[in-house]
Design a protein that fits this description.
The structure is a single chain. Helix content is 45%, strand content 20%. It is an alpha+beta fold. The strands form two sheets. Strands 1, 2, 3, 4, 5, 6, 7, 8 and 13 form a nine-stranded mixed sheet that branches. A four-stranded antiparallel sheet has the order 10-11-9-12. Helix 4 packs across helix 6, helix 5 crosses helix 6 and helix 8 crosses helix 11.
C-alpha cells in the first residue's frame, strides 16, 4: 500500500525500469501508460475515497503452439503479451468486494455465501465469487476490497481477457490478504476452476497459466493438478519478425455457438473414452487408428479427426520448443503453419457451422497466406470460431500485411505485440 501521490512520483511519466519491462521502450507508449495509471488512481479516489492503494497488472496471452490441447492434458507453447488489464485496489474492511471497471457499472460480491448460481453464469460477478470460494477452500485468506480496473486486453480477441481478469483478481487477493504466498501456477488453477464451475465455461488451463506466469513458456498438463511450466529461452525480437494478432471479429454467444465450442473437448474425450481413457493424452495415435472402425460408429468421424489433430499438435509443441531452443526459427515457422492447417482441416474450429456464411477466420487465413506464403507463418489463434488469427511477419512485409488485413477488418484490428516477461503481478515501483 502506498499513497497515490508517492506512486505517481515513482511512475515518473513511465520512465522507470518496470514500465520498460511491461510496455517496451517507446517514450510515447510509456507516457500513455503512465497517464493511464494516474487516471485510474484518480478514479479510485473519486469512487472509493481512499488514498492508500496497491497497483496490479495482468497480461493477455498469445497461444503459439498447441491449439485445443490443454483440456485433454496436452502440451502448449504460450507467451504473455504487452496488452494488459490493470487495477488499483485496497482492502475495505468489510465482507464485500466492490469492483468498478472502466466503461461498466460497479458490481459487488458478498463473501458471506458461495453457492453456485447459474443465473450468474458468464458474468464477472460469478468469476470473482468462484475465485474467492476456491481460495478459501484451499486455506487462503480472503476479504472485502475495492478496485478500479481498466482493460486493454480486448474481449473476444483470443488474447484471453477473461483469464487475464481471473488471475488479476487472484493476484489482488493474494497480495492484499496473503502476503503474496500463493504461486502463479496455483493462481491459474484457481482461476480455471472458477471459470469451469462458477462461470459455466469448460475451458482448459493454458490461458490462465500463461497470463499468471508470464514470459515465453511451454506447459505440460499431463498432470493438470501440477502442470509442468518451463521457460523457453528464445528472443523473438532478434529474428526480425513481428508477432501480429489480428482481431477479425465474428463469434456468437448464442446457445448453438456455445455448444459448438463445448463440443471440442467433449468429442476429444469421447474418443479417449472408447479406448478406456479419460483424455487423449492417455492414448496414442496408433491405438486410435487401430480402433477407428468401432469408434466412429459411436463418436462420429469429426471426433476422430479432432483426436488426430490433438495427437499431431501435442507432439508439434515439443518439436517447436526444440526448434526454438536450437535457434532453428525456419523450422518453427513451418510448424506454425502446419498447426494452422491441422486446426482448419481436422480440429474444425475455424468457423461455426451454425453460422456458416460468416467465415471471418477462414478469410483472414487466406489473406495471410496470400501475403506471407514462403516467408512467414499464420494460424488460428485461441479458441476459434471467430476472434483472432496469429501471424509471424517479416519486417519487409509488415506494412503490406497490416494494410491487407486492415483493409478487410478495419483500421486498428492488427496488434503488433511482444512477449512480456512479467505475469500477473503487484507493481513494485
Amino acid at each position: 500500500m502506498a499513497k497515490i501521490s508517492a506512486l505517481i512520483e515513482k511512475i515518473n511519466n513511465g520512465n522507470n525500469p518496470l514500465f520498460n519491462e511491461l510496455y517496451g521502450a517507446n517514450e510515447s507508449v510509456l507516457k500513455e501508460q503512465a497517464d493511464r495509471y494516474v487516471a485510474l488512481m484518480n478514479e479510485f479516489q473519486r469512487v472509493y475515497g481512499s488514498d492508500d492503494v496497491t497497483l496490479f497488472s495482468s497480461p493477455g496471452r498469445t497461444e503459439i503452439g498447441g491449439n485445443h490441447t490443454d483440456h485433454n492434458y496436452g502440451r502448449v507453447l504460450a507467451g504473455a503479451v504487452n496488452l494488459d488489464n490493470i487495477a488499483v485496489a485496497a482492502p475495505n474492511g468489510t465482507n464485500v468486494i466492490r469492483i468498478k471497471s472502466a466503461g461498466y457499472p460497479e458490481f459487488q460480491v458478498d463473501l458471506s455465501s458461495f453457492e453456485i448460481d447459474e443465473k450468474l453464469f458468464y458474468t464477472s460477478t460469478a468469476l470473482v465469487k468462484g475465485i474467492c470460494a476456491r481460495m478459501k477452500e484451499k486455506g487462503y485468506q480472503i476479504g472485502g476490497f475495492d478496485a478500479c480496473i481498466e482493460g486493454r486486453v480486448p474481449k473476444g480477441s483470443g488474447l484471453s481477457s477473461s483469464a487475464s481478469f481471473e488471475v488479476l483478481i487472484g493476484a489482488i487477493l493474494n497480495h492484499l490478504f496473503n502476503d503474496g504466498k500463493m504461486s502463479a501456477v496455483e493462481n491459474a488453477i484457481i482461476g480455471q476452476w472458477s471459470e469451469n464451475n462458477y462461470f459455466g465455461k469448460p475451458c482448459g488451463l493454458m490461458d490462465q497459466t500463461a497470463c499468471s506466469v508470464g514470459g515465453l513458456i511451454t506447459i505440460d498438463f499431463e498432470d493438470p493438478s501440477k502442470p509442468i511450466v518451463k521457460e523457453v529461452n528464445f528472443d523473438f525480437v532478434s529474428t526480425g519478425f513481428a508477432l501480429v494478432i489480428t482481431d477479425v471479429g465474428g463469434g456468437h454467444d448464442d446457445a448453438a455457438s456455445q455448444a459448438e465450442y463445448a463440443s471440442l473437448p467433449t468429442e476429444m474425450k469421447s474418443v479417449a473414452a472408447e479406448l478406456g481413457a479419460k483424455v487423449l493424452r492417455q492414448v496414442t495415435l496408433k491405438q486410435i487408428v487401430e480402433k477407428i472402425p468401432e469408434i466412429r460408429t459411436k463418436t462420429g468421424d469429426r471426433a476422430i479427426l479432432r483426436a488426430y489433430h490433438f495427437q499431431g499438435d501435442n507432439q508439434r509443441v515439443a518439436d517447436q520448443v526444440a526448434a526454438l531452443e536450437n535457434n532453428d526459427f525456419q523450422s518453427f515457422l513451418k510448424m506454425v503453419v502446419e498447426s494452422g492447417y491441422s486446426s482448419f482441416m481436422y480440429n474444425q474450429n475455424i468457423f461455426d457451422v451454425v453460422h456458416k456464411d460468416e467465415q471471418v477466420v477462414s478469410l483472414a487465413l487466406a489473406l495471410s497466406e496470400m501475403v506471407l506464403k514462403g516467408s512467414g507463418a499464420w494460424r488460428v489463434h485461441g479458441g476459434g470460431f471467430g476472434g483472432t488469427i496469429q501471424a509471424f511477419v517479416p519486417q519487409e512485409k509488415l506494412d503490406e500485411y497490416i494494410g491487407t488485413l486492415e483493409h478487410v477488418y478495419g483500421k486498428g484490428s492488427c496488434h503488433k505485440l511482444f512477449i512480456r516477461k512479467q505475469g500477473s503481478i503487484k507493481l513494485d515501483l
